[in-house]
């Protein structure tokens, strides 16, 4: 039975079968998930996985077994090894992370059900048993082939977007911005003489705008990118075209540079102010993880650098 | 070529319900194909009788395929058909917007953001283009 399982892993083409020195034997059952405490009302948890660091074929196979058939089909529908792997890790990260918060008293990532709200935003569908009132856990996922991330809050709507710093657009940046961004943003990009910096600013703007739309949860078409401006001079704020005089105070942003290679934009619904309309910084806990294997607290280290917005890392 | 053969042989087992671990393993065995297991025949004309007369539609689809391949840096011989979903090919939201921008330039049309979100496959893009070009 075990050797049969091992042979089958080699055919899962996105798994690297050359990982021979497993410190844990994943032919057996997965170890239990370690529980974590829910974030407090003022906190944001950021979890991320680096796909290149997950090399164990048996482990990836076990991840696949956590998913319902519909999600497995979805993962396998992606074209090619890398895309399938990051899609698998995204589903695994969201299921294991939410399970670890033990909201319903147990830790089974398989039993989580997800639904979409009327606008298509994914949400957890909690079992409603006997007066059980699930806490208002909010989450959002983003992934590229090189990074998979999940943000979690209690109560605060959240949107996150990740992108490689060196991501290049096929179209000319200014042509693209003129078509899809606001005039202010075009001006901001146009004023950057260095093309490399301009590219990076574009990616930062893109991730911030994506994070905002994802936090709103209504989809790209209900908040077209040219209907709101992200201003990132001192702090980051969003200004919608229909109320240009009022910076939309409901949302706060963080922009992080992760591992020197990725931008992570986080948009949060503002919960409380520090009195007199002052915004409290985002309290961020960031952990790099390989589900069932290890966690590393990375907030406050070089791995997570705040490059925009008001953030306290701990 | 061998991998395509494997794909076409293994397609039926994808729909097998996988309750027992052994059957689950056999599905895993059969699904590792590097190219889509869908139709390998690029021309939709033979597949969809309704479109036999409409050479423009095929040409539109071909142009969309070319733009998608360029945006996603796919090899020229990658199997991309009308059914192909942008996301499955590796397009994220930025790629999708760039693809739409490429289509706007190629066909001299303007795609409203509301419509852009509903384009998820090559065929949907081609159909939308045809509608806009007719106007």
From TrEMBL, chain A:
Tell me yes or no: is Oxidoreductase among this UniProt entry's keywords: no
Q: Name one GO biological process term.
A: lysine biosynthetic process via aminoadipic acid
GO MF terms here are:
holo-[acyl-carrier-protein] synthase activity; magnesium ion binding
Record's keyword annotation contains Transmembrane helix: no
The 4'-phosphopantetheinyl transferase domain covers which part of the protein?
158-267
Lineage: superkingdom: Eukaryota
Q: Where is the 4'-phosphopantetheinyl transferase N-terminal domain?
A: 61-149
InterPro entries membership: 4-PPantetheinyl_Trfase_dom (IPR008278), 4-PPantetheinyl_Trfase_dom_sf (IPR037143), AASDHPPT_N (IPR055066), P-Pant_transferase_sf (IPR050559)
Look up the EC number in the record and give it: 2.7.8.7
The UniProt entry, under PANTHER family, shows:
4'-PHOSPHOPANTETHEINYL TRANSFERASE SUPERFAMILY-RELATED, PHOSPHOPANTETHEINE TRANSFERASE
**What is the protein name for this chain?**
holo-[acyl-carrier-protein] synthase
Q: Which organism is it from?
A: Linum tenue
UniProtKB/TrEMBL annotation, chain B:
Q: Where in the cell is it found?
A: Plastid, Chloroplast
Could you cite one Gene Ontology molecular function of this protein? Answer: phosphopantetheine binding
Q: Identify one Gene Ontology CC term for this UniProt entry.
A: chloroplast
Q: Where is the Carrier domain?
A: 58-133
Q: Which UniProt keywords apply?
A: Chloroplast, Fatty acid biosynthesis, Fatty acid metabolism, Lipid biosynthesis, Lipid metabolism, Phosphopantetheine, Phosphoprotein, Plastid, Transit peptide
InterPro entries recorded for this chain?
ACP, ACP-like_sf, ACP_chloroplastic, PKS_PP-bd, PP-bd_ACP, Ppantetheine_attach_site
Enumerate the SMART domains for this protein.
PKS_PP
SUPFAM superfamilies from the entry? Answer: ACP-like (SSF47336)
What does this chain do? Carrier of the growing fatty acid chain in fatty acid biosynthesis.
Q: Of which family is this protein a member?
A: Belongs to the acyl carrier protein (ACP) family.
Q: Which PANTHER family match?
A: ACYL CARRIER PROTEIN (PTHR46153)
State the protein's name.
Acyl carrier protein
Report the source organism: Linum tenue
